[in-house]
Amino acid sequence: MTQSQSRTRDPATWQSVQTERGSLWIFTGIRDFVDNIANTSPARLALTAYCLAIFLFTGLLSLPAASADGGVTPLYQALFTAVSAVCVTGLTVVSTAVHWTFFGQLVILVGIFVGGLGTLTLASLLALMVSKRLGVRGKLIAQEAMNNAGRLGEVGTLLRTVISTSVTIEAILAIALVPRFLTLGEGFWEALWHGVFYSISSFNNAGFTPHSDGIVPYQMDLWILVPLMLGVFLGSLGFPVMLVLRRHGLRWKKWSLHTKLTIQVSLILLVAGSVLWALMEWDNTRTIANMSVGDKITHSIFASVMTRSGGFNLVDQNHMDATTRLLSDALMFAGGGSASTAGGIKVTTIAVMFLAIVAEARGDADVKAYGRTIPEGTMRVAISVIVAGATLVCVAAFLLLSISGASLDRVLFETISAFATVGLSTNLSAELPPAGVYILAAVMFAGRIGTITLASALALRQRRQLFHYPEERPIIG
């Protein structure tokens, strides 16, 4: 039988073959597209992965099944919530407990988990899911995201370790929290849901709560507050640090320079933030003045941990003194560790700039720390991250001031909270018109994607230069 006879006698079979080829061609095209991005532009792949996740969760949150009233949630509210979840921020324009059904809260929780894996990790996983492999460039990207924590051939293992570490820590936190909710009179399934929700939200530094009044009812309950603080602090260290701790434990000499700087600066900011917050709020009758000394200390430590990126709050941010809000702005802008679930400009950026200032003051030619010299390229990246972050905050604050008409301190607080993916709020987000909501959503997205992607792109992009201009030093300062 000839091929033409086969087509004539069995047109249905021929049509199905053509359809199958067409679908395979589409899949092949998508695979080649992702492969091309993965091997040429890590920034575009990270951007693509996060955009796809945000569009997906926006669509799910727009469904009638996601809202408690059974209606379709307006686009700006669904989009803002999806961005806040995927970018692990925690800012809300509607109450998480009141507006969303269990399905809606589950969508938010999955978004938090996915977004908490990190931009480059998520981009690498997207490449693996679509093309079943990572090219050499893609492996270099993933390795860079993990601070070169393993050899190039171990990238797949590193990605699996990241996911397993997240799940393990979140499971431990949930095991610690569920019994407490049971003792407080909640049913088993309700306690289980709240324990899991808070464990994922805390480790990913998201700040979402399934209770309408947040964690304020538990402000004296260390059984709940301590796991939340531990989850947020561990999540803010970053996966590269956790991989080093998992491999070498507390043996300081075997830690990488990144691990030493991250833990040291994180502890310094934690202690300094706690002391300063306590001094500023100790006699504030609207916050902690009427509490016992022990509760005041607990609130101060909790505020210092959460301001760095956690987003849970025990006091109304509008009731704090102006000096405390300014301190919170600084701590939020600093953020947590690189390749972590925290935001901000990152503690290693602060460490590198401080070391550069010390070296310049001493007249040293090199910037050194713990027997290592920090390359000049790293300092250029740190400067770029700080300037880019400050510029984004200034532009967004200017736009929000013109739209909302709110006071500068509230607008600046909300803008930095969005940029640093913290989630602490003066309730300005819920008061903004749709235009302001879209601006804050863009700031959250840029804060989560921008500085990390910029740092990685600059670190991986090296251009050969065959000439060198004569040096001339301009006057500085």
TrEMBL record:
The chain crosses the membrane at residues 45-66, 78-100, 106-130, 158-182, 222-245, 257-280, 330-358, 379-403, 435-460. It is found in: Cell membrane. InterPro entries: Cat_transpt. It is a multi-pass membrane protein. Keywords: Cell membrane, Ion transport, Membrane, Transmembrane, Transmembrane helix, Transport. Its main location: membrane. PANTHER family: KTR SYSTEM POTASSIUM UPTAKE PROTEIN B, TRK SYSTEM POTASSIUM UPTAKE PROTEIN TRKG-RELATED. This is TrkH family potassium uptake protein.
